Structure to design on (305 residues):
């Protein structure tokens, strides 16, 4: 019995020695977070991805401009996902906040003025009245949180500029005596859109609007590897003929992209020459136009050029 116990003891000691030799030495200290996590925390500009202490610190450090950006949920032709406005909107407002250097991007509002269609079942929308009430509430909640400037802007044409401009003026009149500004940045959408359409025409691209070259190209650039665009369908991305520039007083697109059309696939114009390179050009224009106008409206200069 004693010999058996002795043998077991020897085997146990041998096994322990082998295991100890096979294990890598433990570091003296175990880091609680990676360098990447620290960098991400320090440079975060997305309200929904921050903790409340991080928001408080950002406000105290001078990031006192809230960017309220609206997206929209609507059909974007057979090739683009219905949430395109929201997906592009989040990338856009984040990039604007980073370039401004003194701003935080609020969560993108996923619904804007539009109307559902059983024929093209990809749209869920609000009315202008509802959007106005929501924008007013979100702005005043941002001010209550501690922001000194609130910028309204959007990725969808419905309700622009009337609703945004009206809310901005109403609240700016109310809060500007307290040193708080509320402004509407329209150039990120309308002027950039018109200028990009002009550039496309000057460079021989076919006219298109809803779910055409501009929409599809930007989605290819920002999310072509994420499934935002059914790329095999781009070669057939042709729809109802696009209106002439300035037609219907809108400058671009149909007044109701969900309304009847000769092809009725949700596309206005010819989007077959869409590309990520064109999308980058358009996206960069959005950021540049927005930052320039916001600085003009607020009489400030961004901390990052």
């Amino acid at each position: 019995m004693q010999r058996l116990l002795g043998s077991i003891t020897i085997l146990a000691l041998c096994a322990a020695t082998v295991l100890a030799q096979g294990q890598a030495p433990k570091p003296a200290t175990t880091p609680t977070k990676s360098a990447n996590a620290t960098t991400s925390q320090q440079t975060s500009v997305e309200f929904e991805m921050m903790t409340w202490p991080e928001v408080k610190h950002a406000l105290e450090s001078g990031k006192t401009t809230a960017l309220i950006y609206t997206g929209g949920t609507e059909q974007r032709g057979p090739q683009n996902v219905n949430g395109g406005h929201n997906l592009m909107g989040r990338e856009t407002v984040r990039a604007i906040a980073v370039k401004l250097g003194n701003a935080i991007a609020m969560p993108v509002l996923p619904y804007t003025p539009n109307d559902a269609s059983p024929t093209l079942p990809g749209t869920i929308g609000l009315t202008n009245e509802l959007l106005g009430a929501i924008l007013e509430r979100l702005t005043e909640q941002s001010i209550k949180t501690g922001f000194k400037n609130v910028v309204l802007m959007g990725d969808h044409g419905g309700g622009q500029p009337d609703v945004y401009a009206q809310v901005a003026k109403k609240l700016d009149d109310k809060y500007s005596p307290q040193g708080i500004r509320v402004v509407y940045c329209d150039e990120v959408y309308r002027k950039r859109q018109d200028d990009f359409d002009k550039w496309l025409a000057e460079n021989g691209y076919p006219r298109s609007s809803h779910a055409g070259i501009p929409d599809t190209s930007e989605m290819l650039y920002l999310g072509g590897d994420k499934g935002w665009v059914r790329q095999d369908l781009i070669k057939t991305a042709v729809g109802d003929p696009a209106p002439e520039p300035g037609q219907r007083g809108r400058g671009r697109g149909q007044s109701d992209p969900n309304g009847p059309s000769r092809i009725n696939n949700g596309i206005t114009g010819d989007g077959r020459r869409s590309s990520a390179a064109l999308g980058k050009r358009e996206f960069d224009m959005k950021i540049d136009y927005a930052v320039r106008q916001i600085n003009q409206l607020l009489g400030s200069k961004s901390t990052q050029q």
About this structure: The first strand starts at residue 65 and ends at 70.
